[in-house]
Amino acid sequence: MRVLTHNKKSILGVMLIASVMTISWSPVFAQGGKWFLGSPMDGVRSGLTSSAVNDIIYVIGGTDYNSDVNKDILDTVEIFNPATNTWRAGPSMPTARLNLTSCVVNDKIYVIGGNNFNGYLTTLEIFNPATNSWTVGPSMSVPRDFLSAVVINGKIYVIGGRNSSGSLGTVEIFDPTTNSWSVGPSMPTARAAFTASVVNGKIYTIGGYDGHNTLGTVEIFDPVTNSWSAGPWMPTARNVLTSSVVNNKIYAIGGLDTTHLVTLNTLEIFDPLTNAWSVGPKMPTPRYALTSTVVKVKIYTIGGWNKSPLDTVEIFDPNASWVKNESNSVSISLSPNPTSGVLRVQGLPLENITATVMNMLGETVLLQKNLIAPYFTLDLSMLPSGTYYIGISSANSVVTKMVVKE
């Protein structure tokens, strides 16, 4: 592993690592959406990027900076398997960097731009999971960090960012087929630390920082007409946020409100079909400079910053509907937890109980009905090792608990 050191101020720029407020969280599970806790990364990091290939998530670069030591800029790769909720190490990226971006074309991960102690980067490096190896591609023309990249029709659109000249609206397009770059029409609002997503062949750039203000700006690029248009302002202006797409809706998650110095756990959802925003259930951990990736219609939010770098993994399932708030009047114990087999569930002032066991993908793996209080047992011996959620429900109450199967 290669580690670079640098000072906090020059690298983090608009991230404003200072005395930043955080918004407290209480569980709110909206109909049609729920947050789950995933297994944490092996190490903390913020300013990272991630991409998924064949339902495996690759987390790349960033920083594990701690206020008590010098900044560390990372070349490390961690690989997450959502099916088993486990992490393993991958081969290090050739160039250590943070505030970079990545995307996938033909099952290869293209990692672009960023910053290290050599300054702003034009670097393109390509990871092939099939061969577990890196190659170096042709560099961009414009060095930058806090940029975004998306894919349309096999071409990579690299948008915006920041360098010594300030915030950028620059668009460069990489074609892996010809291994060459071209220039696209600039984004109307020059900005960095925004997020970008694709729905129905159009690029939506959201939020960010223009060097003076935190933005809720939405601008839409149509590659058919090769032109930009304005979209409806995001309800919460923010930068260093992340976004992912599920069912043709854009989920804008987390970020930093630099105007009020607030670290956010906000989830806002944009539907291009109705051209309107709605509010979703808040992410459990307020954070910014995080990354997100979709596997099997679930959004994995990974890492980020909240007073220090995080190893946090929280998973949003837009389709989950069986879970409600844990009842404050019901105290339930699971024993033993962790368990290797039979789990005793006790403390239930409920009747006509149903127990639903779900894995970290949100799939039901065990269902038992007509259970009787004050306790019952669940046999988990046939389940693979890992973390599970148990929903314990009666006619008027639902309680959720986590259990680890050894």
What does this structure look like?
The chain has 406 residues and is mainly beta. The chain contains 1 helix and 38 strands. It has one helix spanning 8-12, and strands at residues 3-6, 21-22, 34-37, 49-53, 56-60, 71-74, 77-81, 86-90, 101-105, 108-112, 115-116, 119-120, 124-128, 133-136, 148-152, 155-163, 166-175, 180-184, 195-199, 202-209, 214-222, 227-230, 242-246, 249-253, 256-257, 262-263, 267-271, 276-279, 291-295, 298-302, 313-317, 333-335, 342-346, 353-358, 364-371, 375-379, 386-393, 398-405. It has a 4-stranded antiparallel beta sheet with strand order 3-31-30-29, with no helix packed on it. A hairpin with a 4-residue loop joins strand 20 (202-209) and strand 21 (214-222). The longest helix is centred in the first third of the chain and has 5 residues, at 8-12. The two termini are 31 Å apart.
Distance between the termini: 31 Å
Q: Give the DSSP E fraction (strand runs of 2 or more residues).
A: over 45%
How can the largest sheet be summarized?
A: 4 strands, antiparallel
Q: Which of globular, elongated, flat, extended, rod-shaped describes the shape?
A: globular
List the strand order in the largest sheet.
3-31-30-29
Helix count from the secondary structure assignment: 1
Question: What oligomeric assembly is this protein in?
Answer: single chain
- Radius of gyration, in angstroms, nearest whole number: 22 Å
* Low-pLDDT regions: 1-31, 322-329
Structural class: mainly beta
Number of strands: 38
Mean pLDDT across residues:
87
Percent range of helical residues: under 10%
